[in-house]
User: Fold this.
Amino acid sequence: MADMQHSAVAPAENLRPEDFAPLTQHAAQQGSEADRPALGYWQDAWLRFKKDKIAMLALAVIVCLVLVAIFGPILSSVSYADQDLAQANQAPSMAHWFGTDNLGRDLFIRVLYGARISLSIGHQLTETLRLHKSMTKQEAEAKAVEMLGLVGIPFPEKRLKDYPHQFSGGMRQRVMIAMALACNPKVIICDEPISALDVSIQAQVVNLLSRLQKELGLTYLFIAHDLAMVRYISQRVAVMYLGKIVEVAATEELYNHPFHPYTQALLSAIPVPDPDDQQQRIHLDGELPSPINPPAGCHFCTRCPYATDKCRTEEPAMQTFGDRQCACHYVDADGFHGKAVQH
Ligand code: SF4
Assistant:
């Protein structure tokens, strides 16, 4: 050890000018850097950015994507809206790089236009489970298959890899229900769950919801405009006008004996499939006011056939009659007793 130290440090009397050359060069280099003009903020940022290989790679990818997005649709002979039912649900090919959807539309062009960006239903289902239930990929896939089976999707293992456009409207709705049920909720908010479906599919979905409610002990907050369907699925109904609840009652009580004039008008509009049943329709005049700027007093006063001066100045409080509630000046425990007014 003593020998090594002795050989590494030369005695001062043995030092020669050329021994100082590396130090002199370093000092010169430092000096030249210090003499450089100061860089601006963006120049400095760009120099730092250029040194970061990952950042440069990400920039190249983004530039490529932007170029493809701009020039891809221009170069293509197919429009994102072109339909060809004979080409429906085609696998990827030279003619259709990403395949086609159920209307025969080219998926590549639709992706470029941002008109179709889809994840497989398996991905959507398992992502929910992995995030909220901390499941492994295998556990989440097994649970997703179980949920699809529960809502009646045939061959759930195979369908897991399919995209939403490969399902019918009713099946898509079932997948959404499976997604809602995946994390074992107690309450599900169903906001217009059947409005986009044709009547036969509506019946399927509502029957499925009813079955699951009994099997799993669920509570639904079912929001809908279809009053016949609301009567079928609900135990208790709240009627809203202009963003406020105006009446709440058990379903059969409300449908057989509506208190509030708005509820009466709504129920009179339900079509009855019997040509001999000449029910009296209550017509409401005028436009629906803006919920942002509702009328003074009772919000229904501009269209209510029974509105009085009191209605136009005083907002009715929600009153309770047994297990039902109603917000109208002219309602008591026996029901509505206002008189029609000639406007
Ligand atoms: S308070 Fe007046 S305007 Fe409002 S629902 Fe009752 S009768 Fe009609």
The longest strand covers residues 244-250. Strands lie at 187-191, 219-223, 236-241, 244-250, 319-321, 324-326, 331-332, 335-336. Residues 260-261, 298, 300-301, 304, 306-307, 311, 316, 328-330, 338 surround iron/sulfur cluster (CB under 6 Å).
